Amino acid sequence: MTVEDELFNVRTDLAVESRDMYVEKDKENKQDIKGVTVRDKQERDIALTYIDINAEGEKRIGKKEGSYITLYADGVKKQDTQKQQNAANVFASELKELLKKHHVPADSTGLVVGLGNWNITPDALGPMSVEKVLVTNHLFELEHETVSDGYRPVAAVTPGVMGVTGIETSNIIFGIAEKFKPDFVIAVDALASRSVDRVNETIQISDTGIHPGSGVDNKRKELSQETLGVPVFAVGVPTVVDAVTITSDTIDLILKHLGREWRDKDRPANSLTPAGLTFGHKELTDDDLPDDEKRKRFLGIVGTLSEQDKKSLIEEVLTPAGYNLMVTPKEVDGFMRDMADVIAKGLNAAMHSSITADNAADYSR
Amino acid sequence: MTVEDELFNVRTDLAVESRDMYVEKDKENKQDIKGVTVRDKQERDIALTYIDINAEGEKRIGKKEGSYITLYADGVKKQDTQKQQNAANVFASELKELLKKHHVPADSTGLVVGLGNWNITPDALGPMSVEKVLVTNHLFELEHETVSDGYRPVAAVTPGVMGVTGIETSNIIFGIAEKFKPDFVIAVDALASRSVDRVNETIQISDTGIHPGSGVDNKRKELSQETLGVPVFAVGVPTVVDAVTITSDTIDLILKHLGREWRDKDRPANSLTPAGLTFGHKELTDDDLPDDEKRKRFLGIVGTLSEQDKKSLIEEVLTPAGYNLMVTPKEVDGFMRDMADVIAKGLNAAMHSSITADNAADYSR
Amino acid sequence: MTVEDELFNVRTDLAVESRDMYVEKDKENKQDIKGVTVRDKQERDIALTYIDINAEGEKRIGKKEGSYITLYADGVKKQDTQKQQNAANVFASELKELLKKHHVPADSTGLVVGLGNWNITPDALGPMSVEKVLVTNHLFELEHETVSDGYRPVAAVTPGVMGVTGIETSNIIFGIAEKFKPDFVIAVDALASRSVDRVNETIQISDTGIHPGSGVDNKRKELSQETLGVPVFAVGVPTVVDAVTITSDTIDLILKHLGREWRDKDRPANSLTPAGLTFGHKELTDDDLPDDEKRKRFLGIVGTLSEQDKKSLIEEVLTPAGYNLMVTPKEVDGFMRDMADVIAKGLNAAMHSSITADNAADYSR
Amino acid sequence: MTVEDELFNVRTDLAVESRDMYVEKDKENKQDIKGVTVRDKQERDIALTYIDINAEGEKRIGKKEGSYITLYADGVKKQDTQKQQNAANVFASELKELLKKHHVPADSTGLVVGLGNWNITPDALGPMSVEKVLVTNHLFELEHETVSDGYRPVAAVTPGVMGVTGIETSNIIFGIAEKFKPDFVIAVDALASRSVDRVNETIQISDTGIHPGSGVDNKRKELSQETLGVPVFAVGVPTVVDAVTITSDTIDLILKHLGREWRDKDRPANSLTPAGLTFGHKELTDDDLPDDEKRKRFLGIVGTLSEQDKKSLIEEVLTPAGYNLMVTPKEVDGFMRDMADVIAKGLNAAMHSSITADNAADYSR
Questions:
Q1: Distance of alpha carbon D312 from the chain centroid
Q2: What is the pLDDT of residues B2-61, one digit of tens each?
Q3: Burial code of B303-315, b = ≥16 C-beta within 10 A, e = fewer?
Q4: Domain spans of chain A?
Q5: How are beta strands C66-72 and C46-53 bridged, if at all?
Q6: Nearest CB partner across the interface for B3, out of A135, A164, A180
Q7: Cβ distance of A250 and D323 shorter than 8 Å
Q8: Which one of B304, C72, C195, D26 is at 20 to 30 Å from C297 when CA atoms are compared?
């Protein structure tokens, strides 16, 4: 049935990936792209990357001007509730900072929009998060005196996807926003990743708005300060990856692995180590990539291709065979539930000063 | 948690009930209320009542001017799939007639609105029905040439309820309608009944629009031709009943039962019947109601109260005790699923000439 | 469809109701039924009734010999999370006591059985509770050294209902128990109540075992120490009530209400009170019941019937009319979710010494 | 939380894959493995492979003696309801044949077992299928006279998985079977595939029984004629695939793609074709595989590895990096629902002579 095959778009919405792709193409300028400022930070067990892009940077790396904050938090993947709690805390404080930076007053009205399709689990992060967001706007409207200090009016909607409603998702949100007139909007969405290890691990916050279903159809309009007239923050988590990416990432790992093996085999230290014995799993890094001659030896012509060319080749091969699946880890149900929990706790704590990520469980529905 | 206790309003949205309540108060005019035309019909095993109310009728019985069609279809209650199929057929053809009566062209664009709360099963008829409605609008927009004849553009939304979104439900719909500009709207909602035996059995179709959450809050606005500028059809099914109604209905049955027993005990025919033996379950009717003297004898003062006074007394007793529950049959999950199926099949067949209720299963999602 | 209409049996499984029914019939012996010991206690905001029945008591009130503990906890009904937490605490400590009383060792193996039908929400208390129970048995079996102190081996199953599996539920449990050989069994089930105000408010714990689907079919076997050879504890919560009970309870309230009104109308204090003004909602009690002459005046013959005769009359009237529904409050989804949470937290804390009801949330799934 | 991370085992349960793996290792004997008979058939749009393995074959390819029937049906993947209907039809008649072959009488009692974890969508094929199976055993037991001809007694259970129940799944089934004493058992389970294109497309039927959670733990016992004393049929559908398989399959496709490109570039016919223009997507086959010299040129050392060595290398690289995910297509929810529908319709039609796959929809729940 055609109405059900809602397109789940392959979006490179992660600014860190756009940066990496640019760097990959232009290796000389690695640490210094004009118009793009990058800063890393470690907060407890959460790594953070801040990317600020100005108009010039936008032209270079093709990513909209604005601030992007990326959290790497593996608590969901590892099913570690303490780490998930930390992630909610750090996410909340980063979002709070971003609201402040945009001068969003503490008592202003927020609209949380859960993008995506309820019926496709890996695309349901938006609706699943919104379901746990503390909604207070009606309490302010109907019984203002009963609302305690430390809360702001918050509304939350799940507009669905075009394949389910038949209506352009942006139009639904524009219509609601015109009647409701929020002071700011936060949109939550599931993303596709260009890297296997970012799936269910990376949370990106930005102040640049979002395209529901972007990339696929230019006619669709973006949700942003420009179109809605109020600040629009986007929260995105990669939940799917395509077979091209999986294969391409794996080929890179094979090159690094063989590169390191080759390099290590002549090391004196290594000669003392019994064969097959390695000390811990030292992570493979770019330093392990072998030179071109060895790349050719290990992986032939394919080994010498640029990232871009390699992906194009893989896509060319997989697509006609019907193999270029978009996939998600088999534990998708639990991952989505836990990630929605992290996002909702973070949203509640960032928006209401009386809520902290630690007591947020009491406020989630 | 206050955000969750969404009010499920006791609405007397059934025109047949308004008529009955009026008749009850003014017994002389039983068959002849000025401004209210009533007509009954039998279609296969489905009983139908057509009530047309004009401006004068609206003043008398307090029900909005317009046409109301009521189907009595017990296929869902009896879990009889064949009867459910008949109900879908009759519902489809009645709705089709009503669309024609309002000159809705075959290729005009429809918006189906599923009112109610996904998280409260007996209030979820709207969302559950909409989930099975064939949505085609995006196909017309994106790939017009591929849509076969016999279909019209249809969109479908589930705006949620104020306790979940924080936003007045009418405002969400007004906002969407202003952007989407449908040619007609069909709203589906669960209702409360004033009679036990109408629950999950009665389907009302009207052309008068609907108040989401009506009765509770006057500030909330109605969805109707007046507010939306296009015809608004409402489809409603009673799914809950309150304890006052259950008790009041039962007291009436007790009176009728005792009345008939009294009347029958002196009948010669009866004296020949062995005690306790009755021929089938002859349904109790208004003719079984005893006279005032016997009502007093059977049920004391309570037996002589008018319908209205009796319900007031019961409410006065139950409410402070916290007993005035709104209840639903325990088989609510299956009933709602089957009724949503009947409604969705009927909507699809009424809106698309290529679909009949019989092949509608292939089109439901 | 016949396979789906699983019978949801009207069980009077609450010992307090059996006691009340007996007392009602034999008013002289109100406080003193031979073989039945009753003791009340108040624990924070939870009222408790302990009923101990010996062989003689079993003959009198028709309730199996053993201990019954009843908690009255309105936290679920009132959607008060603090009260729900208290209820879980008290439930846990009462169940712990009962395990001790039966000399169940701290490291013995438990089997939790969630009775009832997943597909019928008000009957799903067993499966919904079991889903949140901490299951540890496989950890002990597969990786014994990793299990911390303070936990015991616990397994949990949801055998379904005969209408869904086609197999006698007891047989499924007997089969599993013979292979698994637990040291004790705890069965959780939804019950029907004989009183409106006990629905979703009363938790009964007993050491007498349970009949899955009892009352309906004598061929079905009971789960008990006698049949399983190990202690069988039963946890039951009334989640449904029938229309007969609702009506009968309401008629009683009407009598009490009118009785009190009559009594109060001549009181001097009352004459000073403006009409219609009452000071708070004083709860109606048995003392408000009027004498026979007034009962007749208020409610005729019906007013003078015994509890038993009144219910028989109502049943006789409602059943042929198809009105004797088994119903559940419309908020069934939320009530069941919260009650399952209370039960699961209590079970976890009662079975594992490292878990308290307060930290139990971290252990629920 | 450790109780939730139920292992979803990588099983090579498909006999066609075992055969292929064997053939791959021993290329000389391609069409002729001693003790293994292979026969292909085309039934409408469904391709079928029959593999019969005797004791000698079992030793060679490591797959249990018995009959394996494999259907390739892409109706679910392509969301084509007509193709799904065909698949259900062919599946039903093949299973019916297998029941006949084992002399299962038409009125004997069947037990359908839905293996897998309800809470992990891609592992829920068993429970989802069983939910739609027509259960009749209780009707035969309780009201024998009302069951029409053309039906047999069927029961159905979903034993859960060890991570959820804490009990060895085989033990649950052995316990139930000892009490219920079925004449035959059909077990339905989700499998892992060694090939991307078999996911959600291949249905394997066998008469060899099944290991719940097999491969992982030798202590777990198999469900088979040997252990249960009655014929045990297994129905399996691959629903997940690991990253090693995706990468390995892709590398094969790259080799074939480059092999064909190389071969075609010198063909005269091709020189007349404008560059980039190809006629349809001719599927890549084993004939496109280049010779060793070209394999080395295209993909270096990796290109010359055997299937087995290549997979070992990839696994060695991916596992320490945490990249060796087991994944499922993002449309998992819809795929599982449709496949469960196909399986349940097929089971119903195979077991009850009054049901055909075409009218089976009326019997599914």
A1: 23
A2: 222 233 333 456 777 777 766 655 555 555 788 899 999 998 889 999 999 999 988 888
A3: bebeeeebbebbb
A4: 3-241+331-363, 245-327
A5: antiparallel
A6: A135
A7: yes
A8: C195
Rounded to 10 degrees, what is the CA torsion of B289, B293, B297, B303?
A: 50
Distance from CA of D329 to the nearest CA of A (A): 4
Q: D55 and D62 in contact (C-beta within 8 Å)? A: no
Whole-number Å distance between alpha carbons of B259 and B265:
10
Contact yes or no for C138 and D167 at CB 8 A: yes
Task: Point out which residues pair with A222 in neighbouring strands.
Answer: none
D159 min Cα distance to partner chain B (Å): 24
Task: Quickly name the fold that domain C3-241+331-363 has.
Answer: Rossmann fold (3.40.50)
- Rounded to whole angstroms, how far apart are CA atoms D126 and D140? 24
Q: Say what the alpha-carbon torsion angle A257, A260, A262, A265 is, to the nearest 10 degrees.
A: -120
Contact C165 D171 (CB under 8 A): no
Backbone angle region of B134, left / alpha / beta, with phi > 0 → left and psi within -120 to 50 → alpha: beta
As a whole-number percent, the residues of chain B with pLDDT over 70 amount to: 84
Q: Is the pLDDT of residue C71 over 90?
A: yes
- The pLDDT mean for chain A works out to 84
Question: Residue A142 is encoded by which pair of tokens?
Answer: 């109907």
SS (H, E, C) C59-93: HHHCCCCEEEEEEECCCCCCCCHHHHHHHHHHHHH
The encoded tokens of residue B169 equal 């439900």
Give the chain A residue whose CA is nearest to the CA of C334: A365
Structure token pair of residue D177? 């079977």
**How far is Cα B86 from Cα C343, in angstroms, rounded to an integer?**
44
Dihedral of alpha carbons B101, B102, B103, B106, sign:
negative
Q: Do B81 and D361 touch (CB under 8 A)?
A: no
- Quickly tell me which residue has 């936990």 as its tokens: C151
Give contacts of D362 with chain B, Cβ < 8 Å: 81
DSSP state of B48: E
For residue B81, which residues of chain D lie inside 8 Å, CB to CB?
362
Contacts of D197 in chain A (CB under 8 A): 321-323
How high is the pLDDT of residue C362?
63
* Span A168-190, pLDDT tens digits: 999 999 999 999 999 999 999 99
- Nearest in space to A47 (alpha carbons), one of A82, A21, A83, A97: A83
Question: Which residue on chain D is closest to C220 by alpha carbon?
Answer: D142
Determine the Cα–Cα distance for residues B15 and B285; give it in Å rounded to an integer.
Answer: 21
From CA D9, how far away is CA B194, in angstroms rounded? 55
Partner-chain contact D176 C172, CB within 8 Å: yes
Q: What is the pTM of this model?
A: 0.90
Give the whole-angstrom CA distance, residue A299 versus residue B167.
59
Q: What is the mean pLDDT of residues B65-86?
A: 92
Residue holding tokens 């589906």?
B188
Chain B residue with CA closest to C310: the answer is B254
- Helix (H) or strand (E) run with residue A155 in it: strand A154-157
> What CA–CA distance (Å, rounded) separates C327 from C242?
6
Count helices and strands in chain D by DSSP H and E runs: 13, 9
Averaged confidence pLDDT in chain C: 84
CA triplet D135, D137, D138: central angle to 5 degrees? 100
Residue pair C326/C241 in contact by the 8 Å Cβ criterion: yes
For residues D229 and B74, what is the distance between their CA atoms, to the nearest angstrom? Answer: 47
Decide: B191 and B236 in contact? Cβ < 8 Å.
yes
**Contacts for C310-319 with beta carbons within 8 Å, 24 or more apart?**
C310/C248, C310/C251, C311/C244, C311/C245, C311/C248, C313/B254, C314/B250, C314/B254, C314/C244, C314/C247, C314/C248, C315/C244, C316/B257, C317/B250, C317/B253, C317/B254, C317/B257, C318/B250, C318/B253, C318/C243, C318/C244, C318/C247
Given a cut of 90, whether residue B286 has pLDDT beyond it is: no
Q: E strands along chain C, which residues?
A: 36-43, 46-53, 66-72, 110-114, 154-157, 184-193, 202-206, 232-242, 326-329
